[in-house]
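Handout, page 2. Input:
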Amino acid sequence: MKTILVVEDDDNIREVIVSYLASEGYRTLEAESGRLALDQIRDRHVDLVVLDLMLPDGDGEQVCETIRGRSPVPILMLTAKTSQRNRLLGLSLGADDYMTKPFDPLELIARVRAILRRTDGGDLLADRIPFRGGELLIDALQQKVVLRGETVALTPNEYRLLLVFARNPNRTFSRGDLVDKVLGFDFDGDARTIDQHIKNLRHKIEADPKNPDYIVTVYGIGYRFSGG
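Output:
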């Protein structure tokens, strides 16, 4: 049974989310502030976080950044902020998906299912994949990425994206291809969301993200992994 932490200071909204999640068989934890959310993640096993961005003790984006610094747990942001800039900011901080209020609880459940399905790990490579003489190592048994001897903290989407590339070195993928393989066929957001995940991943594995060696842009088409 998956455990989902719902971080929302509005009691009514939190109760609705918890009720729908429970009806689908999920175990739930609740927090009405960022501090309590961080305490729960420290003390309990959590499989996914539904995180409101307007919290009484600070900005939920800061909470997202703090969570991501501690754990790769998937994060679904929930907010009244509707601009593309806010969406991209949330993704850049490590969120896996982004929903705006008001929302349909059934859509939220569908997105939770999709995120958990993508990050479950059951269909990932059971192998160790080295690139460039071991400079970059993907250990799919432990779901871990090591760069020059140091473990790289990746979000679930970043990890899955890197695995897709590693399975298909020198193959060019369009944004649509990567959306389907990483975010799922049921993802209904902007395909350019993948660009933000690529940007984040480059900052973590490339010596010079502006002149990448691993994840290369194929202009007019998409991206290619040149592992060497």
